[in-house]
């Protein structure tokens, strides 16, 4: 079966992977000239469904629970399974209790246990939450590796191409996010900063809770850290604002003062496509399957969405619409 | 019925629209609360290219009165500019005026507030000033043209509830005919019921609903509490007494034992 995947973000790449694995002849078209420049490129890469449950609904946990396994199997060596550490400054200790009351899959850790997990945070936090089942990856490396692996397996990539100019496919998978033009979608702007702090080492993503400016620091190679991410109801892709930058840097500095000496390597803005319920959808219309609305959970939810899209392509006799399924899950949540 | 700047409103609950898990949950929560006014905050980067219009249209589809606010403004100039942008974006002259004086407590800068209120009232805005429970400031706000007052009962988002009920009571006593809305600091439905029992005309809240484990259920609870407090106020509350009074007379026993 010849399948066209439109869009080379995390949704498109994972869909191509699932389809190719099931024997489809896959072509990926991307209007940009290379990987990147999309929301996935700006992602944190946290595979943290238990933490996300703090504000996300149950389907995000259900659909994201196996994401780390999927990525580990697809790209051995890329996934770090070291959990997530959640901390708060002493005066915001109530935020930890609130976070704990909304989530599961954690254990409380005291100052000594935090030191064992993250020696660089010794003495900085008295109490925290540790989510041992969570994982993280570097989104850009993962996307590049997935691209390479797919190309090796015979998936054709055509960059800088408008999908309207290609034809001859039995199925189309639309993974173009905001560009899909779905009227129900809105953009949620996320701003991030990449810092290089040679004096800091973290083994896992650290989330700092604050009543107003929550932040996560996702460790990357060579003492690089991504600090993110704001959530603004806007599809403006203008550069990061002073206020957001200040909030992110302030929060990073509160986690460790050495971030005050960090080099600001990059700032970025991504526009996350979201449906009104902030839950993803896989929908089939004729010979087109659309994956969209991954919101702030691209790397976490893309594998499950890709599997569902492939199910729809390969079991086209089955009229299952997974959007309905996630809808009913939401209502019962 | 609640009358704010000549608009009659069926509900005495005003609900904020920030920090919900999703716009869908926000919409369900607003319905469950039976609020008739929703507040929206206009961040500057959202106004420029109308790039946030999708969220606005979701809010507008609720078909409720919209009260834009100047949240996060720290100066008179900033607040006035934001109010003018909000008038363009939402097509209303209503503005909840916030001029923040302290970054940590989000306490209003009452001096800047009076000045910004004066500028906006002269420009035909219907100003809803977010103020403290200070009576002198309240008088100044009325003098420059405000016809509604919105005192805090505790810092924004603190969920502390009325920390100074005496001050709120005294405010009600001083301004018997001005609509008074408690804005900020409510954490529980019982807090809302309490300030409504004190005779306040309405309450405005956001975080207590948006950050609840089940925002829709909490919105309904607040709606009921506001109704209960209002009805209690209108029905005349029993003042506390020092002795127990049996609700059923005990017949056949000596009275003084």
Automatic annotation (TrEMBL), chain A:
Domain FAD dependent oxidoreductase: 2-312
Swiss-Prot/TrEMBL keywords: Oxidoreductase, Thiamine biosynthesis
Pfam families named in the record: DAO
Record carries keyword Cell wall biogenesis/degradation: no
Keyword Oxidoreductase carried by entry: yes
GO MF annotation, one: flavin adenine dinucleotide binding
GO annotations of cellular component type: cytoplasm
A Gene Ontology BP annotation from the UniProt entry: thiamine diphosphate biosynthetic process
Gene3D superfamilies per record: D-Amino Acid Oxidase, subunit A, domain 2, FAD/NAD(P)-binding domain
InterPro entries: FAD-dep_OxRdtase, FAD/NAD-bd_sf, Gly_oxidase_ThiO
Source organism superkingdom: Bacteria
Pathway: Cofactor biosynthesis; thiamine diphosphate biosynthesis
NCBIfam families: thiamin_ThiO (TIGR02352)
Protein name: Thiamine biosynthesis oxidoreductase THIO
Organism: Mesorhizobium alhagi CCNWXJ12-2
TrEMBL record, chain B:
Transferase keyword on record: yes
Single GO MF descriptor: thiazole synthase activity
Record has Cytoplasm as a keyword: yes
Active site: 96 (schiff-base intermediate with dxp)
Keywords: Cytoplasm, Schiff base, Thiamine biosynthesis, Transferase
Family statement drawn from the similarity comment of this UniProt entry: Belongs to the ThiG family.
Name of the featured protein: Thiazole synthase
Protein purpose: Catalyzes the rearrangement of 1-deoxy-D-xylulose 5-phosphate (DXP) to produce the thiazole phosphate moiety of thiamine. Sulfur is provided by the thiocarboxylate moiety of the carrier protein ThiS. In vitro, sulfur can be provided by H(2)S.
Residues that coordinate or bind 1-deoxy-D-xylulose 5-phosphate: 157, 184-185, 206-207
Localisation per UniProt entry: Cytoplasm
First and last residue of the signal peptide: none
Domain of life: Bacteria
Pathway the protein contributes to: Cofactor biosynthesis; thiamine diphosphate biosynthesis
PANTHER family, sorted: THIAZOLE SYNTHASE
UniProt xrefs under SUPFAM superfamilies: ThiG-like (SSF110399)
Domain Thiazole synthase ThiG residue range list: 4-249
GO BP: any one term: thiamine diphosphate biosynthetic process
Record text on subunit structure and interactions: Homotetramer. Forms heterodimers with either ThiH or ThiS.
Chemical reaction(s) catalysed: [ThiS sulfur-carrier protein]-C-terminal-Gly-aminoethanethioate + 2-iminoacetate + 1-deoxy-D-xylulose 5-phosphate = [ThiS sulfur-carrier protein]-C-terminal Gly-Gly + 2-[(2R,5Z)-2-carboxy-4-methylthiazol-5(2H)-ylidene]ethyl phosphate + 2 H2O + H(+)
E.C. code: 2.8.1.10
């Amino acid at each position: 079966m010849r399948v066209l995947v439109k869009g080379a973000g995390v949704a498109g790449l994972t869909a191509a992977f699932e389809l190719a694995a099931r024997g489809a002849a896959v072509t990926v078209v991307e209007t940009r000239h290379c990987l990147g420049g999309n929301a996935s490129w700006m992602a944190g890469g946290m595979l943290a469904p238990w933490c996300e449950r703090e504000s996300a609904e149950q389907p995000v946990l259900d659909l994201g629970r196996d994401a780390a396994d999927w990525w580990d199997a697809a790209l051995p060596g890329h996934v770090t399974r070291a959990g997530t550490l959640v901390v708060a400054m002493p005066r915001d200790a109530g935020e930890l209790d609130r976070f704990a009351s909304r989530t599961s899959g954690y254990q409380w850790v005291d100052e000594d246990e935090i030191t064992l997990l993250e020696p660089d945070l010794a003495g900085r936090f008295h109490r925290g939450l540790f989510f041992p089942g969570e994982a993280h990856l570097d989104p850009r490396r993962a996307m590049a590796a997935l691209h390479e692996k797919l190309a090796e397996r015979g998936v054709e990539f055509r960059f800088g191409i408008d999908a309207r100019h290609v034809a001859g496919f039995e199925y189309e998978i639309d993974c173009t996010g905001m560009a899909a033009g779905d009227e129900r979608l809105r953009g949620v702007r996320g701003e991030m900063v990449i810092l290089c702090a040679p004096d800091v080492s973290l083994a896992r993503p650290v989330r700092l809770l604050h009543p107003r400016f929550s932040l996560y620091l996702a460790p990357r190679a060579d003492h690089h850290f991504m600090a993110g991410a704001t959530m603004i109801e806007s599809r403006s892709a203008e550069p990061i604002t002073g206020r957001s930058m200040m909030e992110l840097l302030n929060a990073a500095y509160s986690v460790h003062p050495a971030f005050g000496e960090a080099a600001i390597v990059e700032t970025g803005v991504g526009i996350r496509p979201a449906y009104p319920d902030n839950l993803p959808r896989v929908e089939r219309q004729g010979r087109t399957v659309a994956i969209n609305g991954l919101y702030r959970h691209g790397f976490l939810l893309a594998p499950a969405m890709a599997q569902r899209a492939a199910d729809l392509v390969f079991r086209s006799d089955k009229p299952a619409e997974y959007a309905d399924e996630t809808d009913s899950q939401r209502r019962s949540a | 019925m609640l009358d704010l700047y000549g608009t009659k409103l069926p509900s005495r609950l005003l609900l904020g629209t920030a920090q919900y898990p999703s716009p869908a949950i926000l919409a369900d929560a607003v319905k469950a609360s039976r609020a008739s006014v929703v507040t929206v905050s206009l961040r500057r980067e959202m106004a420029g290219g109308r790039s946030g219009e999708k969220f606005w249209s979701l809010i507008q589809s609720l078909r409720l009165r919209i009260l834009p606010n100047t949240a996060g403004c720290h100066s008179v100039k900033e607040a006035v500019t934001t109010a003018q942008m909000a008038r363009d974006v939402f097509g209303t002259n209503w503005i909840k005026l916030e001029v923040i004086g302290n970054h940590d407590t989000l306490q209003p800068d009452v001096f800047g507030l009076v000045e910004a209120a004066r500028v906006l009232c002269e420009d035909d805005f219907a100003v809803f000033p977010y103020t403290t429970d200070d009576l002198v400031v309240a008088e100044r706000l009325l003098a420059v043209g405000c016809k509604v007052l919105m005192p805090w009962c505790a810092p924004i988002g603190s969920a502390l509830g009325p920390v100074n009920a005496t001050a709120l009571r005294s405010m009600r006593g001083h301004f018997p005919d001005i609509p008074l809305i408690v804005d900020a600091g409510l954490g529980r439905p019982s807090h809302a019921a309490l300030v409504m029992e004190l005779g306040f005309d309405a309450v405005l809240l956001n975080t207590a609903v948006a950050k609840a484990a089940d925002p829709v259920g909490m919105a309904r609870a607040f709606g009921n509490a506001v109704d209960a407090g209002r009805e209690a106020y209108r029905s005349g509350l029993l003042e506390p007494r020092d002795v127990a009074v049996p609700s059923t007379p005990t017949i056949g026993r000596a009275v003084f034992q």
